[in-house]
Design a protein that fits this description.
heterodimer, A: 137 residues, mainly alpha, 3 helices, B: 197 residues, Arc Repressor Mutant, subunit A, 2 domains, elongated
Chain lengths: 137, 197
Amino acid sequence: MTEPRTSGLDRALDEALGRAVSTPELPHAFRTRLNAALARTSDSDLLSLREKMETERRQQLEELQAAYVRVRRGTLGTVIGVAFAAGAAATIAMPWLRAHLGAYTPLAITWGAVALGLGMVFLDPLRSLLRRWSDAG
Amino acid sequence: MHAAVSDATERDRDIVELLRKGNRDRAFEELLRRYEGKVYRLCCALLRDRTQAEDAAQESLLRVWKALDRYDERASLSSWIYAITRNRCLTALEKRRPMDSLDDLAEEAELGLPATGEPCDGRAKQLLSLVELLPERLRRVLVLYYYEERSVSEVALMLGCPEGTVKTALFRARAALAEMLKRRGLDDPTYWQEDAP
């Protein structure tokens, strides 16, 4: 006797719940508000992207500047060092050179310095050329 | 849940295809047309508050838009959207002051006010007030089941649980409601019929 009443109640309850639990309708302005929020998000995304790129550019410029100063200092140091070393070498080697070359000593020192300078100038290009040849080989 | 997931994957194949082609705007437009209502209803069921549900649905869809490029197809698109929505609702629930919300809900239940806020007749009010007294996990399954036109598979997808769990929750919810009706002497089926006086 209870079983039919229970299943009858289940059916009736299901129907009553179907009527009572009404599906909430999407608010009228939902899409409009969402589109506005999306537009705001896109704008802020673009803005933050621009800020990020500007920051990165500033950092790169600072790094380049620092590297440039480092190179200038290095170059200056090298030039001074090489000049002192050359002077010292020339002073030490002068008696031996005079003994062997006589009057040609100043000319020999000048040509030696020129050869050293040219060697330093062309050392890097020569190295990269050799590297390319070895890579191609 | 596997059948429901594969159905959902099949349903959203066109959107996924648009995403693969890099057509994000059209994919999102189609996604909105298909899911904005469902996302809103899920928020309503989880949050019990229309205003908060609207905010949560808007924010969830915004998150979906932002993350759409990163959708990797590991889960079905609908599962992914519903997971984002559930997370957003959980955050909203955590932010709520627990005592306030519990008091409000208890008061609503006592007064027999419908949680959905829709105008309804006396019997519907009675029934909804009893639904509000159900344990939260049973209430949300029951409410979503009727929101989604009695689709167990959709409710399972929305809540991220197996269909069996939904069926069990529905069974328990109905049993609990029937018990409450019996205790109040309202278990006569004819009382709940639409054309009853």
